[in-house]
Amino acid sequence: MSQNKKLFIQTIGCQMNDTDSQHIQAELEKHKGYTTTSNMEEADLIIINTCSVREKPVSKLFSEIGQFNKKKKKGAKIGVCGCTASHLGEDIIKRAPYVDFVLGARNISKIKDVVDVKGSVEISIDNDESMYEFSTAKTNQYRASVNISVGCDKKCTYCIVPSTRGEEISIPPEMIVEQVRKSVALGAVEVTLLGQNVNSYGRNFSDGRGKYSFTNLLQDVSKIEGLERIRFTSPHPLHMDDDFIEEFARNPKISKCIHMPLQSGSTKILRAMKRGYTKEWFLNRASKLRALVPNLRITTDIIVAFPGETQENFEDSLDVVNQVEFDQIFNFKYSPRPGTEALNMAHLEIDDEIGSARLIELIELHKRHLEKKMDTYIGQTMNVLIESLKPNGEVCGFTDNLLQVFTKGSDDLLGKFIDIKITDASRTSLKGEVVL
Ligand code: SAH
Ligand code: SF4
Ligand code: F3S
């Protein structure tokens, strides 16, 4: 095995892509002798791990790999991995013949097989058991991310993910617990459980075993000694049953920040999106959570200008935003994606200018909420896990409910839970002083 080969990897997309990139890196280190570089021009292998969820990053892909090809070291290879690899497959090599291999989001475990085979394309979305047998991925020293399922069985009509990541399969709980244990042994105190739809966990195991829910998994993972915080993403509002909400509220290890992807506040649009819940169900779940969990932060994803969205339907989204007062919103303008059901509604597509105006209105409303809300933290004392040291002599970390906090300090605070009295707030983070 030749040593000292260098890998440069660029990752776009969701947290699953981040863990996939960590796994690619770990596999290539272990089996092929690569080390990672942040300088593309010195790399022997350049990988771009792609996202297809909206059109923009896909259209940028070819100009980006074109740039890589121009600037790369002589003889360096280029690989395209991830969701765009899954959905464009060999067309990527047809359009950009200098690409050496294409590896789909469901096929990451095959990285060591394709890396040296010019022209290889692996994009099958059939189940692949070896997906779960990864080298231990390196993570931030204090945080680990562990996949609990692959794929997605929902059929949200706007979404390309089920066709890039395939059928939803739950990874056996013992493997997950073992993976979390390993990370804790390496120093992690926090884990994020990842899946496209985490709270439908347990419906479909690779080994066909019987009943075991996401709530059961949370209970088992929280028994791991040395693990202090559990986060997870993304849960689906439809599957937020009472059992789940009560466990969330009761279990002190579960971080009190929850992602509740609304997508739309209009029951009519939710139906057209095939989300499976109504505006009222969403509001009911959010208010049950708020009632049971003091200091809860709720984040969300909202799509504006889905085909057929009237002004009144959009106002339903604003209404939910006003009622729930989300702590963070990821806003998107609807982007038509190949192979999705919403393409059949092309005749109902909303004028781009209207879509942009709605996006701005939503962002402005949320900004007003945040300005009010973030100021209320001033004067409070918060417990923060310090994770990083900044060049300006500040340290930074997160509260249990995922607020980012900065304070003056040095590296002896790293990895510790510290009480900080908040003195200043911006829309996205807090500043404070260590309480001695
Ligand atoms: N499985 C996750 C989401 C994955 S995609 C979940 O259900 O929460 C992340 C976000 O991208 C989605 O929540 C949605 O808001 C957005 N998104 C997905 N497809 C989109 C499209 N075609 N146009 C615009 N936004 C989209
Ligand atoms: Fe896409 Fe819906 Fe699955 Fe999320 S739940 S990945 S939005 S199909
Ligand atoms: Fe993007 Fe694939 Fe994740 S499309 S959002 S990288 S599942």
Give the helices and strands, then pairings.
Layout: E1 5-11, H1 15-32, E2 34-36, E3 45-50, H2 55-71, E4 77-82, H3 83-88, H4 91-95, E5 101-104, H5 111-114, E6 120-122, E7 143-147, E8 149-150, H6 161-165, E9 169-170, H7 173-185, E10 190-194, H8 214-222, E11 229-233, H9 242-250, E12 257-259, H10 267-273, H11 279-292, E13 297-304, H12 311-324, E14 328-333, H13 352-375, E15 381-389, E16 394-399, E17 404-408, E18 417-425, E19 429-434
Parallel strand pairs: 1-2, 1-3, 3-4, 4-5, 5-6, 7-10, 10-11, 12-13, 13-14, 17-19
Antiparallel strand pairs: 8-9, 15-16, 15-18, 16-17, 18-19
Helix pairs in contact: 8-9, 11-12, 12-13
S-adenosyl-L-homocysteine binds next to strand 13.
Cofactor: [4Fe-4S] cluster
Catalytic activity: N(6)-dimethylallyladenosine(37) in tRNA + (sulfur carrier)-SH + AH2 + 2 S-adenosyl-L-methionine = 2-methylsulfanyl-N(6)-dimethylallyladenosine(37) in tRNA + (sulfur carrier)-H + 5'-deoxyadenosine + L-methionine + A + S-adenosyl-L-homocysteine + 2 H(+)
Subcellular location: Cytoplasm
Mean pLDDT: 93
Give the biggest beta sheet. 6 strands, parallel
Bound molecules: S-adenosyl-L-homocysteine, iron/sulfur cluster, FE3-S4 cluster
Could you give the count of β-strands?
19
Judging from the principal axes of the Cα atoms, what is the shape?
globular
Helix and strand composition category: alpha/beta
Biggest sheet: strand arrangement: 2-1-3-4-5-6
- CATH topology of the largest domain, by name, is Transcription Regulator spoIIAA
Domain MTTase N-terminal: 5-120
Function: Catalyzes the methylthiolation of N6-(dimethylallyl)adenosine (i(6)A), leading to the formation of 2-methylthio-N6-(dimethylallyl)adenosine (ms(2)i(6)A) at position 37 in tRNAs that read codons beginning with uridine.
GO molecular function, one term: 4 iron, 4 sulfur cluster binding
Organism: Arcobacter caeni
